[in-house]
Every structure is written in C-alpha cells, then in structure tokens.
C-alpha cells in the first residue's frame, strides 16, 4: 500500500513537472501559421501512391490554414500561389480551390498570381462561372482594362447555369461609366456567393478598397472643379466642402481620413493602396461598342 | 466444394478471434471517424475531405489486414504444424488453400461492411441527408472489396512459399508497388520503357481500383472501372493458381 502511494505521488510530481515545462514550449497557436516548403506536384503525385486527390486534399487543408491565419498580412502571402498550384495540379477539378485562392491573392494585391490561378481554373473547370467572373473583376478593378474585363464577363455569362443578370453587369460597366460603383456591385455579387468566412473577409477588404475608390473619384472630380473655379489646387478635402463642391466628407472605410497629394489624387491616411487610373473616355467608348456588339450576338445565340 | 466452405468458415472464426484483426478494425473505425473531424478544418465542401480521407483509411487498414492475416494463414499453419493433420485428411492442398482464401476474403468483406456502414453513417450525419449514399460511394466500397481480394491473394501466395514475417514484408512491398505501378509506367520513358511496361504487367494495378475521385465529384464510375474489376479478379485468380502450384509441390519435411 505504501509503495503504491509513493508511486502515485511520484507520478503526480512528474505530471506537475511536465505541465510546468510544457508551458515554456513555444506553442503552435502562438506562432503565425506559415508554410516553410511547398513540394513539387510531380514529387507529391509519385508519393501519393496513386491517390493524388488525397494528397491534394491534405494540402488543401494546409492552404485553408494559411489563408485563415488572422495575421496573414503580417506574414505575407508568397506561399499561397505555390500551394494553390500544388493542390490544383494534383486535383485539377477542385473548383473551390481556384476560387478561394484567386480571391485571396487579389485581396493581397498579387494580381498576376490571382489571374494565373483563375485562368488555370476556368480552363480546368469550365462549368464554374464564378472563375471567369472573378478574373473579369480583377481586369476591371485592378488593371483598369475594360475590354478584357468585358470578354471575361461574357465568358462567365455564357457558362451554363450562370445567373441571367451577369449580362446586365457587362452593360452596366460600359454604359454607365461608373467604374467604382460597378466594382462594388461585382464584389457584392461575389460576397453573396461566398461559402466561408475567409473568402468573405478577403472580399470585405476589396469592398472597402472599392468604396475608397468611389469616394476618391468623387473628391478628385470636385478637386478638379475647385482648381478650375479658384485657379489653384485645393490643399485639403475640407476646402471642397467649404466651396460647396461636395456636401460632406465621406468616411474613410479603412478608419483613417482622406487627404490630397500634390498631383491631386485622394489617399487614405491609414491605407496606402490606390488603383491604377482606368482607361480614358475614348477607350471606354470603343470597348463599349465592341462589347455591345458581342452581347447582341450572345443574346441571339442564347435566347 | 464442401471442404472449401468448411475450411473457409473455420478461417473466418479464427480470424475474428485474432488480436491483430480486431485492433486493425478498431483503428480503421477510429480513422474513419477522425476523417469527419478533420473535414471540419476545411472551408466549403466538407464531403470531399471526409469521403476521401475515410475511403483511404478503409483502403489502408483493409489492405494491412489482408496482408497480415493472409501472410500468417498458410505459413502460420506450417510453422505450428497444424497443416499436417489437415492434409492427411481427404482434402487436397489446393482445396485447403482455396478454403483459406475464401475465409480470408469473408473476413475482409465483413470488415469492409463495418467500415462502410460507419463511413456512410458519418457522411449522412455530416450532410444531414442521404445524398452522400450515391452510386459512386457504393461502387467505391465494392471496388475496395475487389482490391482486398487482390492483396489477400498476393499475401496468400507468399504465405504458401515462405515464413509469415517474410510473406508479410513481400506482400506489403508488392501492395505499395502496386499503387505506384500506373505512375511508374507513365513516368518511365526512354530506352528502359519496355522494362517499365513489363513491371507494370507483373505488379497488381491497385490504383485502378480506387474510386475516390468519383466519390468526391459524385460522378458515376467509368466503364474502365468495371474493366479494372475484371482485371483484378483475373490477377487474384492467377496469384492463387501460382500459389496452389507451388503449394502442391512443397515438401514440408
């Protein structure tokens, strides 16, 4: 009996010691989730023992953790494209992988990578209209290339099962000429169809950017009017309100304040990123006529 | 025929009492349940992760059961000298071997049925409907059963000619190589391609007997899958015929 009690006490002492040491171990949760190495898809295919979808799914789980890391911007997103390539090389039909990683890469500002993944996606999964749709949003929103965006919107609209109002989007983009407003509509369309919180978060960030662009476009137009009226450039956006060119200053969606740089462009005090200036009026009009012709042909083909 | 059935029934009873069989089955069930838990880590469609991991867990554990039970069946009887009174009776060695194989197959299919029921129940629970129980899933279960028959035949072939340990090692190696054989043929180009092709014919093409992708994408199995079933049956038959040939001529002294 005494021996048993002694052994039990010894076990309790060791357990307490284990717990004390365990607290000092750098727990995984405290670190930012990162992927040190992404193996080649050929090597993984060979090692999968004839089960490429299994290895793709295991790497997809790693990709989900990588995308879902709350401090992802702090860590950077340089492993996302290789992970996406690995997953989709092993399982080319994994449509949601293209959608999620394409969206996240765009949100992180890696537009070329996002475009590459989305283009690979709609080649391999041609029945998923959201992939060319997203590629169109990238062309429209980040590259200012309306003609290219129009072609991808048309491709999305032609996909069987795509919502009928996609055709309206194409027209809205060209006819209204309200680029930021149209961008918000496109992103809201993607947001409504998002299936998980990570995708929604990435889209919220892009929506905030689109709101910033819309506000900035209005303020920049008012600043140009101010320059024409007064003869000098305004120094702060407040002058635009004082001259009655805008009724009030919009709130910065990123939580900062708007200011004007020396070239007359509006920026947020807390968010540096701005889009490239979109195509000029003549280019837009030419693209509009071209797209309208294609849309008419499409409507004849798909009543 | 009655001899084969009688030996088969004894084999099933024996196998069900063996610790390795019970442990592997419990571990397989644990892995199948874990696949559902792991699927909660994904975003979007959880069915793809749960079904893929679950089917792979079934495949791995079922194959291991086939290897370890099969490797020790005949070689174990020889080691323990249980075989001598059996062959002294009016039972041919081929009948004994076939009876052992039938019993092993019955055990593996019982295991498969338990694992399949567990995975199906979990997938239904996850989906909240009977939608996951489709033709692709049922075909995948059937195909796993066929795959186990091939692995069991290979294990029994080695069990007929060598010791239980060596038989298990050889059967495991052939099973792993069998899963790689398709890739081997695809990647082996150039002057040695004929050798690659010859090895491909020699090894069991086990990756052709996996329908995970069809289950993930809920697509019906292609005709090629049923051709693969026929191939597997012929391969298992050939392995058993070789085993019987060697076993008939084997000197137990």
Would you write up a description of this structure?
The complex is a heterodimer of chains A (303) and B (253). Chain A is mainly α and 303 residues long. Chain A contains 14 helices and two strands; from the N terminus they run H-H-H-H-H-H-H-H-H-H-H-H-H-E-E-H. Chain A has a two-stranded antiparallel ribbon. In chain A, 65% of the residues lie in helices and 2% in strands. Among the domains of chain A are: 35-128, Serine Threonine Protein Phosphatase 5, Tetratricopeptide repeat (Alpha Horseshoe), CATH 1.25.40; 214-283, no CATH class. With 253 residues, chain B is mostly helical. Chain B has one domain. Chain B is globular. Classes of the chains: A mainly alpha (303), B mainly alpha (253).
Instruction: Please provide the count of β strands of chain A.
Output: 2
Oligomer type:
heterodimer
Q: Major beta sheet of chain A, specifics?
A: 2 strands, antiparallel
> What's the average pLDDT of chain B?
88
The SSE string of chain A, one letter per element, is: HHHHHHHHHHHHHEEH
Summed over residues and divided by their number, the pLDDT of chain A gives a mean of 82
- Spatial strand sequence of the major β-sheet of chain A: 1-2
CATH topology title of the domain at 35-128 in chain A? Serine Threonine Protein Phosphatase 5, Tetratricopeptide repeat
Q: Which spans of chain A have pLDDT < 50 for at least 5 consecutive residues?
A: 298-303
Instruction: Please state the overall shape of chain B, judged from the principal axes of the Cα atoms.
Output: globular
Which pair has the most extensive contact? A-B, 24 and 24 residues
**Overall number of domains of chain B:** 1
Structural class of chain A: mainly alpha
Q: Specify the overall morphology of chain A.
A: flat
Report the sheet-strand fraction of chain B: under 5%
Strand content of chain A: under 5%
Question: Helical stretch count of chain B?
Answer: 10
Distance between the termini of chain A: 89 Å
Based on helices, strands and strand pairing, what is the structural class of chain B? Answer: mainly alpha
């Amino acid at each position: 009996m005494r021996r048993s009690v002694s052994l039990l006490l010894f076990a309790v002492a060791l357990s307490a010691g284990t717990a004390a040491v365990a607290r000092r171990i750098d727990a995984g949760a405290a670190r930012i989730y990162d992927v040190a190495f992404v193996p080649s898809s050929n090597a993984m295919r060979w090692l999968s023992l004839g089960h490429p979808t299994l290895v793709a799914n295991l790497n997809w789980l790693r990709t989900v953790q990588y995308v879902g890391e709350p401090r992802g911007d702090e860590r950077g997103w340089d492993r996302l494209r290789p992970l996406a390539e690995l997953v989709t090389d092993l399982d080319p039909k994994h449509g949601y992988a293209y959608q999620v990683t394409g969206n996240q890469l765009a949100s992180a500002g890696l537009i070329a990578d996002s475009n590459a993944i989305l283009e690979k996606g709609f080649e391999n999964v041609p029945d998923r209209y959201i992939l060319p749709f997203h590629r169109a949003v990238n062309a429209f929103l980040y590259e200012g290339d309306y003609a290219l965006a129009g072609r991808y919107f048309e491709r999305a609209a032609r996909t069987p099962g795509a919502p009928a109002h996609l055709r309206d989007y194409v027209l809205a983009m060209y006819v209204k000429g309200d680029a930021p407003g149209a961008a918000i509509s496109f992103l809201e369309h993607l947001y409504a169809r998002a299936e998980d919180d990570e995708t929604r978060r990435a889209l919220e960030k892009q929506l905030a950017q689109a709101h910033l662009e819309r506000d900035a476009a209005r303020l920049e137009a008012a600043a140009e009017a101010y320059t024409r009226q007064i003869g000098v450039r305004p120094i702060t956006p407040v002058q635009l309100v004082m001259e009655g060119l805008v009724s009030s200053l919009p709130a910065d969606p990123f939580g900062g304040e708007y200011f004007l740089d020396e070239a007359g462009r509006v920026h947020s005090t807390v968010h540096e990123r701005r889009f490239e200036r979109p195509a000029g009026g003549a280019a837009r009009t030419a693209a509009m006529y071209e797209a309208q012709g294609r849309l008419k042909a499409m409507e004849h083909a798909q009543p | 025929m009655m001899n084969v059935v009688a030996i088969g029934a004894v084999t099933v009873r024996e196998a069900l009492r063996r610790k390795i069989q019970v442990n592997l089955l419990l571990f397989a069930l644990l892995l199948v349940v874990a696949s559902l838990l792991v699927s909660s880590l994904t975003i979007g469609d959880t069915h793809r992760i749960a079904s893929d991991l679950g089917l792979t867990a079934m495949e791995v554990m079922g194959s291991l059961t086939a290897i370890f039970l099969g490797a020790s069946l005949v070689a174990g009887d020889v080691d323990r000298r249980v075989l001598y009174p059996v062959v002294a009776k009016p039972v041919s060695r081929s009948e004994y071997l076939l009876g052992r194989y039938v019993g092993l197959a019955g055990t593996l299919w019982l295991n498969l049925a338990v694992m399949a029921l567990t995975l199906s129940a979990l997938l239904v629970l996850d989906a909240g409907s009977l939608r996951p129980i489709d033709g692709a899933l049922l075909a995948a279960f059937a195909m796993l059963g066929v795959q186990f028959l091939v692995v069991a035949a290979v294990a029994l072939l080695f069990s007929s000619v060598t010791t239980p340990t060596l038989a298990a090692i050889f059967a495991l190696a052939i099973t792993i190589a069998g899963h790689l054989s398709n890739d081997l043929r695809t990647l082996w180009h150039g002057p040695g391609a004929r050798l690659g092709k010859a090895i491909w014919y020699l090894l069991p093409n086990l990756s052709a007997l996996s329908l995970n992708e069809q289950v993930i994408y809920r697509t019906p199995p292609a005709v090629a899958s049923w051709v693969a079933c026929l191939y597997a049956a012929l391969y298992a038959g050939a392995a058993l015929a070789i085993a019987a040939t060697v076993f008939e001529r084997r000197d137990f002294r």
